[in-house]
Amino acid sequence: MLPDFDRKGIPKDLEGSYRRNPGFYRDLRGRPVRSKPLLHRDPSIAASSSAASLTRPVPPDGSGVLELVLDSAATMPVAAVDETALAVGDGTVFLVLPTGPHVVDVQGGAARSPVVAHVADGATSTLVWREEADRFTVGFGPNPVDAAPPRTFVYLYEWSILVFLVCGLPVATVNAFSFGDTASRIAIAAIAVLGLALLPFSPWRKRERARLAGLRLERERPGRSEPVHYPWDGPQIADRPALLGDRPERLPDFAPSHGALILRATAHRHLWKHGDGVSPRDTELAGTRVPVPEVLIDGSRQPATWGNWWYPLRPGKHTVEIAVDAGPDMKRERLDVEVRAGEAAVVRADAHVYAHRDGETGRVLREDGRLYLGPEEFHGEWMGDPEKRLAFWA
Predict the structure, then answer these.
(1) Per-residue b/e over 38-54, b at no fewer than 16 CB within 10 Å?
(2) Which of 51, 65, 77 is nearest to 119 (CA)?
């Protein structure tokens, strides 16, 4: 982050901001690509369950405490434990839970991978959810993560290349038509010298980008959760599905003679509609959660949440079907994928769910959503390359 940068800054004219930046939210075909979340200048936390507390409780025998820290950038995240709503807003909330594994889910601008927290008897398990200023980059794990980008000159170098391509080459081309003129020859020579001066730094740029990616992954490691096989309290063996987390450091081992399907499912929460400026505090609307999707492989229902999942499969063709409760009815898409032994095929699912408060009745209404399903390229060796791994999972 830049010094003195207002991480929770919100455009005063929110409607105008959306209107001026349509490409930020939609692709060239008009399809939504990211959410329009409900933004607040007062996102302070409010418990939505009688079991939740804003002060640290003393757990009885056979139970422990979950401490959940929510740190958002102007949105009001909604947290849930085992699919039961816990709190809405920005702050710290505590919950007494029976010992064992529990699924903790936080939905901000989007719904992504939850974290499986293992609560020990009489102990406190802490999870930190932090949303950055772009309202897209999210860290969720046992420790806070320093998201400040490292200092580097590689971006200045890339900007210089862009200026050379956009300005230098056209100027050189124009002057080439009057090459007999001394001024034109000097201009072409100067541009050529500039281009040759930038060329030797190309290998450094590649090394620097790889170094920055590795440094970012290293910074994220303390706050990253490990892949967990399902069922959470069962044996962690290779032939069981696994929740990978948002940016996994490693992938599970392949079961013998098996391949795997990686499902990357994200739900974008569109909670803002009409009006200008920042919405008044609306805990009910902000707390509208997106239910978990239904995932069927070859007609068999699989354990699923939003986020990245690993499903061991035998080699061959398989049919993947996703169903999302996106409003008045379910949205369903299906896709055939080919799985090879010792390889992972990837399918990406993007759901867009809309909700708003009706101006006449005052009720929170859920509109027809959208669901997109398609294959995604993935190579296992990317996990060993910091830059490619970060580019893929982020």
Answers:
(1) bbbeebebbbbeeebee
(2) 65
Look at residues 270, 227, 338, 241 and name the one whose alpha carbon lies nearest to residue 110.
Answer: 270
Task: Tell me how many domains the chain contains.
Answer: 3
In a shared domain, residues 261 and 169 = no
Q: Is pLDDT of 313 > 80? A: yes
Three-state DSSP at 311 gives strand
Strands 91-98 and 52-53 come out as: antiparallel
Q: Are residues 65 and 177 in the same domain?
A: no
Do the beta carbons of residue 238 and residue 255 sit within 8 Å? yes
> Are 258 and 369 in the same domain?
yes
Domain residue limits at 137: 46-141
Read off the tokens for 105: 């889910």
Query: Is residue 195 located within the same domain as residue 70?
Result: no
**pTM of the predicted model, to two decimals?**
0.86
* CB-CB neighbours of 282 under 10 Å: 17
Residues 241 and 389 in one domain: yes
* Spatial distance between the Cα atoms of 342 and 336, rounded to a whole number of angstroms: 19
Q: Considering only CA atoms, which of 330, 326, 373 is closest in space to residue 354?
A: 326
On average, the pLDDT of the chain sits at 88
Quick one: 136 and 177 in the same domain?
no
What are the CA-CA distances from residue 266 to residues 15, 108, 258 (Å)? 25, 12, 26
Q: Are 142 and 126 in contact (CB under 8 A)?
A: yes
